[in-house]
Amino acid sequence: MFTALLRLPNTITKEEKIIRAEEVITQLGLTRCKNSIMGGPFIRGVSGGERKRVSIGQEILTNPSLLLLDEPTSGLDSTSAQQVVSMLRALTSEGRQTVLVSIHQPFSKLFYMFHKILLLSDGNPLYFGRGNETIEYFSSIGYSSPVAVNLCDFLVDLANGVYLGDLADERRRDVNQGLVLANKSNLLNRMKEEEKLEVDNNNGSSRHDRTDKYIGQRPTTWGQEFSVLLKRVLLERKHESFSVLQVAQLLVVSFLSGILWWKSSINDLDDQIGFIITAIMHWSLYPMFNAILTFPEERMMLIKEQSSRMYRLSSYFIARNVTDLPMELALPIIFVIITYWMVGLKPTVRSFSVTLFVILYNVLVSQGLGLAIGSAIMNPVIGSAFGGIVSQAFLLASGFYIRNVPSFVSWIKYLSHNFYVYKLLLGSQYKNDDLYQCGANVSCRVGSNPTIKKIGLGNEVISVVALGIMLVGYRVIA
C-alpha cells in the first residue's frame, strides 16, 4: 500500500492507488496476510514465499513492460517456489509483462512451468527454447539424457561440461565447446521459428496502459513522500517502542541511581558531580549507539527503494528522525523525573527544568552523532567500534576523570558535546558563591572546588550555541 502511494504518479488519485494495490495483493494471493508485518530477525512476520511475492508486487505495481528477477525461488521450499513461479507465469498470460528470471537448478515440475529456457555456461548460451524441447534438442546433437537422470541435473552437468559422468578436464572442455558451437549453428533457425510464432500469437492483441512511462520522474511531491513515510515508519517503530526490556532497564537504572545518591546535598558536592557525570555518560552512549545501528539495519531496503526513485532521501531521513523523537525523549524524561528528587539536587522548578532541557539536548546531539557515524560507516560492527573510540575520547577530554589534561590534546574537549553539557548541568545546580562544607567546620565557595574551577561556571549561551551547531551539523553530515 505504501509502495503504491509513493511510486504511482499524481495523475492517479489516492483512491485509485489504493485500488491498484488491492488488485496486486489479490493477484499475488496475499489477501490473507495483507495486514501482517514483514518481520525481521527478532519479530516474526510473513513466510519466505510471501516475502518474495511482496517484493515482486512492489515492482509490478507500475505495470513494467519488463520484470527482471534474480533467483526468486532461492531459500524457498518446493511448494513456496511453485507458488512464486505460478504467479510469475500468470503475469505473462495476459501479454502485459515479459518476466526474465535467473534460476539455479529448479526441480522438474518447476522447470516445465517456464515458457522459454536459456541455459548458460560461463556466459555462453548452450540452449534457448521451450523447456519441453530440451531433451529432443540435445539428443539431436549427440547428447542424450540417461533415462534414470533428472532432467535439471542433466542440464546442470552439461553446463559444467560433464557428460555421462566423465570429469576429465580435457573432455569437459570438448563438451562445452561442442555445445556452444552447436547452439550457434542452430540458434538462427530456432529464433526465426519463435519470432513467427510470437507474431501469430500477438496479432490483434493490445497492451494495457502503463505507468512505467513515469520512470525517471518523481511521481510524488516531497510533502506527500514525508507524509506516507511518516505513517510507514510509525507502524514499523510501533513494534520496537517502549518494549518491556527497555522500560525495565530504565527503571532499574533510575531507581538504582536514586538509591546510591539518596538525598545528597551541596555538602556532598563531589558525589553530586559524580551523579551528573553518570547521567551524561548514560544519555550520551545509549542514544548514540542506537542511532549508529539505524542505517546499517535498513541499508538494503534503502538501496532498493532509492534505486527505484521511490522517494527522496531527505524525506525519509526527516520522517525517521521525527518518529524516533517520542521514544528517544520519553525515556530520559522519566529518568530525570525519578532521579532528580531522589538524588537531592537543587529543589527549584527552574533548576529542574534546566536540567531536563540539557539532558534532552544531550540526547538529541548524541543521536545526531550516532546517525553521522552510522551513515558514514555502514558496517554495524565497525561503526560501533568507531563510535566507542569517539565517545571515549570525548568523555576523557571533557574533564570527567582527568583534571589536568595535557595541552596538546586538551582542544578535543571543545569538539565534545559532553563538555558543554557538563558545564550547563553544573551551572543549573551551582553558583560560584554558593558555600559547601569542604572540611570539619570549614565552608568553601563552590567556585573554588578543583573540578568546578577547572570546568568553569558561566558562559551558558556559548555552550547552548555550540550544542546547537553540533545538533544541526551532525544531521547534515548524516
UniProtKB/TrEMBL annotation:
Keyword Ligase: no
Compartment(s): Membrane
Domain (ABC-2 type transporter transmembrane) ranges: 225-430
Taxonomic superkingdom: Eukaryota
Keywords recorded for this protein, A-Z: Membrane, Transmembrane, Transmembrane helix, Transport
Residue stretches making up the ABC transporter domain: 16-74
Coiled-coil residues: none
Entries under InterPro entries matching the protein: ABC2_TM, ABC_transporter-like_ATP-bd, ABCG_dom, ABCG_transporters, P-loop_NTPase
Membrane topology: Multi-pass membrane protein
GO cellular component: plasma membrane
Transmembrane segments: 241-261, 273-296, 317-342, 354-374, 381-402, 455-477
Domain ABC transporter family G, first and last residues per copy: 104-200
An example Gene Ontology molecular-function term: ABC-type transporter activity
Protein name: ABC transporter domain-containing protein
Species the sequence originates in: Papaver somniferum (Opium poppy)
